[in-house]
Write a structure and sequence with these properties.
The protein is α+β, with helices and mostly antiparallel strands. Strands 1, 2, 3, 4, 5 and 6 form a 6-stranded mixed sheet that branches. The relative contact order is 0.30. The protein contains 2 helices and 6 strands. It is globular, with a radius of gyration of 13 Å.
Length: 106
């Protein structure tokens, strides 16, 4: 069954879909972290969003195949060249549509 809702796990066509929420800490603002995250997510075929938080963290939500989300999480730890990631908190995401693209939110 195809789904456009964001849920813990589901299926889109014959592909298992999962959704994760990320909080990234460290030097992750002012280093093109969001733009590079968007680029990587699109390269991986993920949907969702990324945004800066007032406390200096970056928040992201991504939806896709579980294996692809693992690759994405590994990249979040690395980030772009000028980033210094110290922590990535991961949780299941629920209750919000991911849309059909990966966008940078304000």
């Amino acid at each position: 069954m195809a789904t456009d809702r964001l849920c813990r796990t589901g299926k889109r066509g014959n592909t298992l879909i999962d959704a994760k929420h990320y909080l990234i800490q460290g030097r992750v603002q002012g280093v093109s972290y969001r733009a590079n995250t968007q680029r990587k997510a699109r390269e991986l075929g993920l949907t969702g969003w990324v945004r800066n938080l007032p406390d200096g963290q970056v928040e992201a939500l991504a939806q896709g195949a579980p294996e692809t989300l693992q690759t994405f999480e590994a990249w979040l730890w690395q980030g772009p060249a000028l980033a210094e990631v110290t922590r990535v908190e991961v949780s299941e995401a629920e209750g919000e549509p991911a849309g059909s693209d990966f966008i940078v939110r304000d």
